[in-house]
User: Fold this.
Amino acid sequence: EVQLLESGGGLVQPGGSLRLPCSASGFTFKSYVMTWVRQAPGRGLEWVSSISKSGDSTYYADSVRGRFTISRDNSKNTLYLVMDSLRPEDTAVYYCAKGVDGSWYPGSSDFGLLSDWGQGTLVSVSS
Amino acid sequence: SFELTQPPSVSVSPGQTASITCSGDNMGDKFVCWYQQKPGQSPVLVIFRDTKRPSGIPERFYGSNSGNTATLTISGAQAMDEADYFCQAWAGDTVVFGGGTKLTVL
Assistant:
């Protein structure tokens, strides 16, 4: 059974930083694309960032590019999201999601496919 | 920037067919996914590559995509299908979600 467990959320002041780990189990982590998606309270889903299986390709939403960094440690089966220069509008539940194990690049048939999701971790940015 | 537009809400009577649309430029040239999210729960993938169902998703969920509109159809809607539904597609090197549609079964 696929399990994705996010942690690291909490209350942080504007301008602050936070690191979110996502621990994966139940599948061969190094073989799958991974993604972060967030959801502000009472709002819809917003794609944040995705990373290739090896970690050599990363993609970001315009709203977080230059402030957030996605990475992975395949030896630890863990995905990370480092969030710097946090803003109140970054307040959301952050979900870790499992992508595909096949061909993956912008425009490919499964570029955005998210087959399994974690339970999410809440990040609140407020003074 | 690329946007996906969904109706905020759709209502359906139990046993009837519900259709949720997702509009965007040249949607037929992209592959669309649909996600179901029930209150307090994480999203669940219900359709990928426009028309395919993951294992465990009931056959009453059907997807289509042509022109500028993708559609999620739920045939014989059940009370358990009441949820928010989000469409998703790629645009350039990013991924875009629609704003979501609240499906009410009553």
In short: The first strand of chain B starts at residue 9 and ends at 12.
